[in-house]
Design goal:
CATH architecture of one domain in chain B: 3-layer Sandwich
Number of strands of chain B: 13
Order of helices and strands of chain B: HHHEEHHHHEEHEHEEEEEEEE
CATH class of one domain in chain B: Mainly Beta
Number of domains of chain A: 2
Shape of chain B: extended
Largest sheet of chain B: 5 strands, antiparallel
Number of helices of chain B: 9
CATH superfamily of one domain in chain B: Rieske [2Fe-2S] iron-sulphur domain
Largest interface: A-B, 36 and 46 residues
Mean pLDDT of chain A: 84
Strand content of chain B: 5-15%
Distance between the termini of chain B: 63 Å
Oligomer: heterodimer
Strand order of the largest sheet of chain A: 1-2
Order of helices and strands of chain A: HHHHHHHHEEHHH
Strand content of chain A: under 5%
CATH topology of one domain in chain B: Rieske Iron-sulfur Protein
Helix content of chain A: 40-55%
Chain lengths: 269, 356
């Protein structure tokens, strides 16, 4: 019997073999898996090329839920709405904040690290625009916050946004596990696009119901909160309303009172 | 303290389970524990130290009060900074709060420490006494009262007695009437009606612009106020700020554009315009503004108590404590703008006695 055959019967052989097999499969998968093209590698000058590139990205990353023609699908784990006419603004918001592609089906797509480059997001947007007209990525003049009226933005925010997003834009709960996210540290562009397109549970605020100038005012108000403009009188305790304040008082406040009561009741040495 | 003041009453019957009746008759007064002198009572050095501690705390309080006064004027009210662990906050209010707290806290700490270490701590018992006066004093008081009754001849002149009582009783009227009617006028039909009437335009809150039906896209939501009560309200016959608040609290409306195919109620379709429907924003539970519209599920959620209304089925309640659906405002198009086709058909807002 050769040496190799002897080793083959050793119990360690099974573990070694398993390890080798897993390593090989993993390496092969990493080498062969479909990858998104790197930024600029296939950048092209013509619009039709952008549509083609966008379509490729769409087929590789989005079509499993939204359908190969973005017509939408219904199914338990692969239900996605039709994307015809949602416009590049919706694409820029959903993909640009990492909400799409979703990690797993659920009641709400959560914000997470962005997986595409700016160029790829633009190409996806151009492809979606080619399917039907929809809201566009906003002009720079409406997101630079120059000459924005913060007070007017506050009025509009309190009427239209505060009931879900909290009067300090810290977010809040909706029904059955859904929630309105907090609006701190969101890019002005994405705030604008969210109002314009109404992602997921959010209603739509088009240019007639809240004009572009008013949208800029709202964004300026949110940025003002970020800089502490809404924040007077000590610590905000998260600005989440009475629950946060009560938690602080019931633990730290009452704890101090109890300690004081014990000290008062003790005799001096 | 004597035995007879703290004595437990004699039991009416001896408990059945006790074998030795003598030991259970009454509890012995254990008295006070032996007095133990404090360190400051016996050691003059310790007393001096305690005095210094108390003086130190009062001095801290004085310094904190002065620091408060200086910071109140010297520090920039918008000064912000980042504290370790705690995070960014307005430092002006933090400084004022801390100095004010120290100013009061060290008075308290000093006073308590003073009382515990230096003031006398010998145990003192306060005796309790019977509350009733003795029989002689009570008889005398009763004698004075009946003497007065006889002297005023009330026992012989019943007409005087009745009229005195009647006059005193009716004096309640001049006191009670202004109190009751001072509560304000009766509500009249104010609970059943709002300012909405046929032909009144729907205006966007807060800008006050009128609304064209083609301006709404699928999933649009507009917060609406009746014409004349929103936007630029500074004209000749403009409503007062109080009137605007009242209108806001009763007549504000949520305008939503739905897909007409999703709407299950024929009345809801008929009272809307191409799937654009207007509903009262005042919750039928306790009157919070219901405005959390979820575009995908068409649920309308009240933030106060989570009452949930189904926007596609005439705003019927599907969850929560609200009992009635939200009232719908009938709307139509006039000269290209959305106007009310009529007022609300039912009272808006929470239930009340007559409504149940």
């Amino acid at each position: 019997m050769s040496k190799l055959a002897a080793y083959r019967r050793s119990p360690i052989a099974l573990i070694v073999l398993l390890f080798l097999g897993l390593t090989f499969t993993g390496t092969a998968y990493a080498a062969l898996q479909p990858t998104a093209p790197a930024d600029g590698a296939v950048a092209s000058a013509t619009a039709s090329d952008d549509v083609e590139e966008g379509k490729k990205l769409f087929l590789a990353n989005c079509a499993s839920c939204h359908g190969t023609n973005a017509e939408g699908k219904t199914g338990i784990n692969t239900a996605g709405p039709s994307l015809v006419g949602v416009g590049s603004a919706a694409v820029d918001f959903q993909v640009g904040t990492g909400r799409m592609p979703m990690a797993a089906p659920g009641v709400q797509a959560a914000e997470k690290p962005v997986v595409f480059t700016d160029k790829e997001i633009e190409q996806l947007g151009i492809f979606i625009d080619s399917l039907g007209p929809g809201p566009q990525v906003p002009d720079a003049q409406y997101i630079d916050l120059v000459n924005a009226d913060i007070a007017n933005g506050g009025k509009i925010f309190r009427t239209n946004c505060a009931m879900c997003h909290n009067s300090s834009a810290q977010g809040g709960a909706l029904t059955r596990g859904k929630f309105a996210p907090d609006l701190m540290n969101v890019e002005p562009k994405h705030l604008y696009e969210a109002m314009l397109t109404g992602p997921q549970s959010m209603p739509v605020f088009n240019d007639h119901t809240i004009t572009p100038q008013e949208k800029e005012d709202v964004i300026a108000f949110i940025k003002n909160i970020e800089e502490g403009g809404n924040d007077f009188g000590g610590h905000t305790l998260g600005s989440v309303g009475p629950a946060g304040d009560a938690l602080f008082i019931w633990t730290i406040g009452i704890g101090l009172l109890i300690a004081a009561a014990i000290w008062l009741g003790r005799k001096a040495a | 303290m004597t035995d007879d003041q703290l004595a437990v009453p004699e039991p009416h019957s001896t408990p059945a389970s006790t074998g030795d009746a003598d030991t259970i008759d009454r509890f012995q007064d254990p008295g006070l524990p032996a007095h133990r002198p404090r360190r400051a009572d016996v050691d003059e050095k310790a007393a001096k130290r305690a005095e210094h501690q108390v003086s130190f705390m009062f001095t801290l309080s004085i310094l904190a009060s002065l620091a408060f006064a200086i910071c109140y004027f010297a520090v920039d009210p918008n000064l912000r900074g980042r504290l370790i662990i705690i995070g960014p906050m307005n430092l002006y209010h933090l400084i004022l709060g801390l100095t004010m707290a120290a100013s009061l806290l060290f008075i308290g700490l000093g006073a308590v420490h003073w009382a515990k270490t230096l003031m006398p701590d010998t145990e003192v018992a306060e005796e309790r006494h019977l509350q009733a006066s003795d029989q002689a004093a009570r008889d005398e008081a009763a004698g004075i009262l009946s003497q007065g009754f006889r002297d005023s001849q009330l026992d012989r002149r019943p007409v005087l007695l009745a009229l005195t009582g009647g006059a005193l009783a009716l004096f309640a009227i001049p006191v009670a009437l202004p109190t009751i009617f001072g509560l304000g006028p009766l509500p009249g039909d104010a609970l059943e009606t709002t300012v909405w009437k046929r032909g009144m335009r729907l205006m966007i809150d807060p800008s006050g612009t009128p609304i064209r039906p083609e301006h709404l896209t699928q999933g649009s939501v507009i917060h609406v106020m009746p014409e004349g009560f929103v936007g630029d309200t500074h004209g000749e016959d403009a409503p007062s700020a109080l009137e605007i608040m009242e209108v806001k609290a009763t007549a504000s409306v949520l305008l939503v554009k739905l897909n007409p195919g999703d709407i299950q109620s024929q009345k809801q379709l008929d009272w809307g315009v191409d799937g654009i429907v207007a509903y009262s924003k005042i919750c039928t539970h306790v009157g919070c503004p219901v405005a959390l519209y979820e575009r995908q599920t068409h649920h309308l959620l009240c933030p106060c108590h989570q009452s949930t209304f189904d926007m596609t089925d005439d705003c019927k309640v599907i969850f929560g404590p609200a009992k009635r659906p939200l009232p719908q405002l009938p709307i139509m198009v006039e000269n290209g703008y959305l106007v009310a086709a009529d007022g609300f058909a039912e009272p808006v807002g929470p239930s009340y006695w007559e409504r149940g």
